Amino acid sequence: MAATxxxxxxxxxxxxxxxxxxxxxxxxxxxxPSAPNPPFNLIIVHSKxxxxxxxxxxxxxxxxxxxxxxxxxxxANRVVERAKELCISKSVTDATLEIVEGDARNVLCDAVERHxxxxxAVGSHGHGAIKRAVLGSVSDYVTHHAHCTVMIVKxxxxxxxxxHHVT
Length: 167
Description:
By secondary structure, the protein is of the alpha/beta class. Helix content is 44%, strand content 17%. It has six helices and five strands, in the order E-H-E-H-H-E-H-E-H-H-E. A five-stranded parallel beta sheet has the order 3-2-1-4-5, with helices on both faces. Helix 4 runs parallel beside helix 6.
């Protein structure tokens, strides 16, 4: 690797508002202020779940997996297109966008290794302890397993659409 190569920043995105908030926040704080020569090479990674992992059940004699896979591909393409549009709206035109099949936890950690990333940024879904224990937290996993600095971007409570504050 040449000494002039910029460090790599990876942002993990899914279809959630939290992940797009994290992408926008990262763009605004790390890339936009120094445009047109940002200090990082930006790589945006979306993990497309496998059809079998998305279903959790099988129907004998019915090829439902191909239909599920088509839907997952459409979702992945929409996510990446939305990420690309957000980057372009912020005049960040040299981001690399990747769709990688697999569990988000492994996909993001593998991307860090593959690209020798310096920073991995992810959004926080803000699940409670029980839901996080059942679903598994991507941000918690990458914090412990990614071999780089991990930045978890949380959307401030006041900016949640329709958020209710109970006292």
